[in-house]
Design brief:
With 307 residues, the protein is mainly α. The protein has helices at 2-14, 27-31, 35-39, 55-78, 81-104, 109-114, 120-135, 141-167, 176-202, 207-212, 215-223, 225-239, 246-284, 295-304. 74% of the residues lie in helices and 0% in strands. It is globular, with a radius of gyration of 25 Å.
Length: 307
């Protein structure tokens, strides 16, 4: 993220007529993980639409991660994992109700779209799913029931998500459809995604799980997906004045994005992770002490070795 922000700032200053020109100020909320707040005018004039605008989703996640681990540890201190899963689902429902009042009260779309609270139910549903999957015992009645449910409804949920990706148009003008989509839409899509994830996790031997788990997909998903997300829009915007033809610009953007993502993974992310591991592991991973042998055990070991 910091490398991307530095690149946008430097290119924008040196080549102000480029697609990154005039966007230097956006690097501040992007690097500070508050782009979502900036997008709906929390710091004055609203931003959005620039090369660094995809940072808004990363900001929502980071703000969630500052709160959720502490809350989770507190809940696990007092309740079992399965109980915490139910509480997490109830919290998600609470944020759904909160979004209902925002939409009904005429809140701006930018506020509904970018708010850390208006996106919290989606993240909490994923956390609830993780807690459920953690709490079940293989072969238990609950495990078998969940397997039966996801086997039946998982493929339908996956199909519904595909239809939503290609057919669902997000309304921008107030009206009945606007209220339905922006109140219940995020929750519904998150529940469909949770059902698909549960289907893949609980049915690891299914054909679709094996396909998606193939190293040609799982490898780039693990190593390159973050970089691809960071670079895809900046590269596309940078190429707009250079490559007028959309038919050429799209595949060129795809190729350059993958190249930049690989460079990020190979020369930025991997070295930093290795350095951090060397620094942090001694502090958090304590070596297992050697067992202290009693004198009788030492004599027995000496006798067994012929000494």
């Amino acid at each position: 993220m910091l490398v991307l922000c530095a690149g946008v700032v430097m290119v924008g200053l040196v080549f102000p007529a480029s697609g990154w020109g005039g966007q230097e100020a956006d690097a501040i909320p992007a690097a500070g993980y508050v782009m979502n707040l900036s997008n709906f005018g929390a710091f004055g004039s609203s931003t959005g639409g620039g090369a660094l605008s995809p940072a808004w989703t990363l900001a929502v996640e980071e703000q969630f991660y500052l709160v959720w681990p502490v809350l989770l540890l507190v809940m696990l201190r007092f309740w079992k994992v399965r109980t915490v899963a139910w509480i997490t689902a109830v919290l998600a429902a609470g944020f759904l109700v909160s979004r209902f009042f925002l939409v009904s009260g005429g809140a701006p779309l930018a506020r509904i779209y970018n708010g850390p609270d208006t996106r919290a139910d989606e993240l909490l549903l994923g956390c609830a799913l993780a807690l459920v999957l953690t709490s079940i015992s293989p072969g238990s009645r609950l495990h078998i029931s969940l397997q039966t449910g996801v086997r039946r409804f998982g493929p339908l949920a996956g199909l519904a998500l595909l239809v939503a990706v290609f057919a669902l148009k997000e309304p921008s003008e107030p009206g009945a459809w606007f209220h339905v989509i922006w109140t219940a839409g995020p929750t519904a899509l998150a529940m469909l995604a949770a059902l698909v994830i549960g289907w893949l996790v609980l049915q690891p031997d299914s054909l679709i799980s094996k396909i998606l788990g193939h190293r040609w997909l799982s490898g780039p998903g693990r190593d390159l997906s973050y970089g691809i997300y960071l670079w895809h829009l900046p590269v596309f915007i940078l190429l707009i004045p250079l490559v007028p033809s959309l038919a050429v610009r799209v595949p060129l953007t795809a190729a350059l994005t993958v190249l930049m993502a690989y460079g990020s993974f190979r020369f930025v992310e991997t070295p930093i992770r290795r350095w951090a591991s060397r620094k942090l592991e001694p502090a958090v991973v304590r070596p297992v002490p050697e067992p202290v042998q009693e004198p009788a055990q030492e004599l027995a070991m000496a006798g067994a070795s012929g000494k």
